[in-house]
Protein: Single-stranded DNA-binding protein
Organism: Streptomyces guryensis
Amino acid sequence: MNETIICAVGNVATKPAFRDLASGPSARFRLAVTTRYLDREKNEWTDGHTNFFTVWARRQLATNVTASLDVGDPVIVQGRLKVRSEPREGQNWTSADLEAVAIGHDLTRGTSAFRRPGRAETDTAAAAPQQPEPDWETPPGVSGGTSAQREPEPAAVT
């Protein structure tokens, strides 16, 4: 409930690394997010500080990331932010990880062609008996149909 969900817009900095673990597929890559600002003295856009995030993708997202992303691709990543600090080689190291919920190409900087992953056909689907199409029309004389299908009601006698 108290998680920090962020949306980061940047570029893929490393080739996605895929691993098939006992808990399911997993992939990770580094995301570079560089701020840009207008330098009023030069009257041009200038790159600011770059933040790097390690992006983690699980299950089907991991498989799709590995097949879809390359170094340099502009992407948008939405996920849970996890910041860790640990001593390493006598120094304090801080890392920021994103456990991705959704990842997509940034279409403001290019085009992309979406493809659904192929589904393996199962024997159970082929062996399932075909069910007849339902009859959506209400037979005449049965209540609940449209007024064109219903029999006319008798006129009221006064």
